[in-house]
Design brief:
By secondary structure, the chain is α+β, with helices and mostly antiparallel strands. The chain has helices at residues 11-20, 51-63, 114-123, 139-145, 205-222, 242-248, 277-295, and strands at residues 25-29, 41-46, 68-71, 77-79, 84-90, 98-101, 105-109, 126-127, 148-149, 152-153, 158-165, 170-174, 181-182, 185-186, 192-199, 201-202, 255-256, 259-261, 269-271, 304-306. The protein folds into 3 domains: 8-90, Uridine Diphospho-n-acetylenolpyruvylglucosamine Reductase, domain 2; 96-222, Uridine Diphospho-n-acetylenolpyruvylglucosamine Reductase, domain 3 (2-Layer Sandwich), CATH 3.30.465.10; 242-306, UDP-N-acetylenolpyruvoylglucosamine reductase, C-terminal domain (Uridine Diphospho-n-acetylenolpyruvylglucosamine Reductase, domain 1, Alpha-Beta Complex). The longest helix is centred in the last third of the chain and has 19 residues, at 277-295. It binds flavin-adenine dinucleotide.
């Protein structure tokens, strides 16, 4: 296979990007931008800091027929070893800002990490999102995934979502009527999410901060949070816990190359240091095969795979 290189980008596009975004990185290893620490290069990686910059990046890519992929914290992504062709966008700057709004509302950019958003709200006596404190992704990625726990999902808290309309190059506001959230899915997939209005509940600051700490401690006790992973590998099949099925099948600790099924939580795959995406895919296939043959259950991925196979 041809090795990925920036020459796959049209020269005029490359020149225009260099001029508009002096900080753009060509052939950027995406392992630096995922919690798995796995992933080949992006042809070009750009961090827009304002709506004008985001609009320009999108316009340049569309004018030159270059594919765009937006990522958040990379905390739900397995990026393949051959990397991602085209342009990767990661929202920074104004997209990492939070502001209080009247009532119990807060307005957050899509680039804000959920733990920061929840701590920020807690300090101001706004609760209702504490259980999500262990989700290390950004608000944008979490809206796409409808990130959640047994206690609730981000979709339950959303009062408005702002997306960039790629054709008109303007920000559109979506109301709850336009939005559909279900188990680890939303109808925002494929849109460029730039921010949202989140509705929380007023409460006592100290109670909220205590609940945040409790959720953090229970994560530490039950999940391998200090390893390189992307959280749940598979979705829970209806009425079942996938972690328990994998454990019952005797697959805890299964190792392929530099990846293994976590001995702490069987639905997590850990990168032990030098794992390739192909090692993780090997684990995914082994687990799927064994769960199918032992329990007749077909597992669906929760983590997302990006890149050229
Ligand atoms: C230790 C650990 C614990 C976790 N626990 C949980 C949990 O309890 N519950 C849970 O639901 N998840 C959990 N996760 C998974 C992950 O954190 C969530 O899925 C999170 O919502 C992903 O957000 P992200 O910003 O990292 O998105 P990414 O992984 O970067 O991207 C996910 C998807 O969203 C898209 N995307 C990202 N940003 C944008 C944007 N601004 N606009 C449009 N599309 C965008 C990407 O293209 C991709 O398709 C955990 C992960 C880890 C590592």
């Amino acid at each position: 296979m041809k090795s990925p290189s920036p020459t796959t980008l049209p020269h005029a596009f490359r020149d225009a990007i260099e001029k508009r975004f002096p900080g753009a990185r060509f052939d950027e290893p995406l392992s630096k931008h995922t919690t798995f620490k796995i992933g080949g290069p992006a042809d070009v990686y750009v961090e827009p800091r304002t709506t004008a910059e985001l609009t320009d990046a999108v316009r340049l890519a569309d004018d030159h027929g270059v594919a765009i992929t937006i990522i958040g914290g990379g905390s739900n992504l397995l990026i393949l070893d051959s990397g991602v062709r085209g342009m990767i966008l990661r929202l920074k700057g104004e997209f990492e800002e939070i502001a209080a709004r009247p009532g119990s509302l807060l307005d957050s950019g899509a680039g804000v990490k959920l733990p920061k958003l929840i701590a920020w709200a807690g300090e101001r006596g706004l609760g209702g999102s504490e259980s999500l404190v262990g989700v290390p992704g950004t608000l944008g990625g979490s809206l796409i995934m409808n990130a959640g726990t047994r206690e609730g999902e981000i979709g339950d808290l959303v009062r408005e979502v702002r997306v960039l309309d790629r054709g008109a190059l303007r920000v559109d506001v979506l109301s709850p009527r336009d939005l559909r959230f279900s188990y680890r899915a939303s109808n925002l997939d494929g849109r460029l999410v730039v921010g949202a209005l989140i509705e929380l509940k007023a409460g006592k600051r100290d109670d909220i901060i205590n609940r945040i700490r409790e959720f953090q401690q229970s994560r530490l006790a039950t999940q391998p949070v200090h390893t390189h992973n992307v959280g749940s590998t598979f979705k829970n099949p209806p009425g079942k816990f996938v972690g328990r099925l994998i454990e019952q099948a005797g697959l805890k600790g299964l190792r392929i190359g530099g990846a293994r099924v976590s001995p702490v939580h069987a639905n997590f795959v850990e990168n032990l240091g030098r794992a390739k995406a192909s090692d993780v895919l090997g684990i995914v296939e082994s687990v799927r095969g064994k769960i199918r043959s032992e329990f007749g259950v077909e597992l669906e991925l929760e983590m997302r795979i990006l890149g050229e196979p």
